[in-house]
Amino acid sequence: MKKYIVLLLIISLLISGCSKKTEESIPDKDTQNQPVENTNTADVSKENKYLNFDDMHFYFNGHKIELGKTTLEELLNYGAEICDTGYILSRDEWPDINEDLKADYVQGVHILINEGYYLNIGIYNPDEEDKPLKDCAIYDASLNTNEGENQSVITFNFPYSLSIDELKEECGEPDEEYGQTEDYHIIYRQWSKTNEYYQSYYYFVYRDGVLASFAMNYMD
Predict the structure, then answer these.
(1) How far apart, in whole angstroms, are the C-alpha atoms of residue 167 and residue 191?
(2) Is there a contact between 145 and 163 (Cβ–Cβ < 8 Å)?
(3) CA dihedral defined by 190, 194, 196, 202, rounded to 10 degrees?
(4) Closest Cα to residue 13, out of 123, 115, 144?
(5) What is the end-to-end Cα distance of the chain in Å, rounded?
(6) In 3D, which of 26, 15, 34, 19 has the Cα closest to residue 197?
(7) pLDDT in tens, 41-98
(8) pLDDT tens for residues 69-81?
């Protein structure tokens, strides 16, 4: 039976719960905006400063966190702290990292950056057997970047001041872009070579020309 993958982008921005993976899809566009799609898939396999689908990662206090490889326990050992967002979960609802995560399930977790500011990560168990949450790897991460320059805990291979023109100049035309000046979406994606339902992506959202949020998802 084929397993279907759903990206955690919107889920991890809104909740920190456990859910089964379903068919992969990019979040629906604003129906009021007409999409501007590039028919040629962006070639981000070439070496560039910002995107690398073979080595998707971010940094936590200078420690490299590799999607699909770094486990939740390793991240916590680097000093990360699971946090309450203040309005989504109560402390009693925080995940127990020693409890099993079901096979083919995702657990959303919030990692504290500073007061009122946090990183959303998705912990995924791709195995056919349940295993402790702490032993499962991080497969996606998302962050509201409008406060990114005010902290140095979470960093990426690009500056938080990255403009649309700078992004395209370095990485080429995206696979998909849509929206208007006040809310513009840019997506670079790569489909899995082993499963037709899997895709990895880098997702940038700009508001009034300024990078407002960013998400990355890895699926091999």
Answers:
(1) 21
(2) no
(3) -20
(4) 144
(5) 18
(6) 26
(7) 444 444 689 999 999 999 999 999 999 999 999 999 999 999 865 444 444 556 789 9
(8) 999 999 999 999 9
Distance CA 17, CA 101 (A): 11
3-state helix, strand, coil in the chain (%, to 5): 15, 35, 50
Q: What tokens does 124 get?
A: 């995924």
pTM attached to this predicted model: 0.80
Q: Looking at the chain, how many residues does it have?
A: 220
**Dihedral (C-alpha) 158, 179, 14, 59: value to the nearest 10 degrees?**
-10
**CB under 8 Å to 54, separation ≥6 — which residues?**
45
Beta strand extents in the chain (DSSP E only): 18-20, 35-37, 57-60, 63-66, 100-101, 105-114, 117-124, 131-132, 137-144, 154-155, 176-180, 183-191, 199-207, 210-217
Low-confidence ranges of the chain (pLDDT < 70): 1-47, 84-94
Residue type, 117: Y
- Matching residue, tokens 């396999």: 45
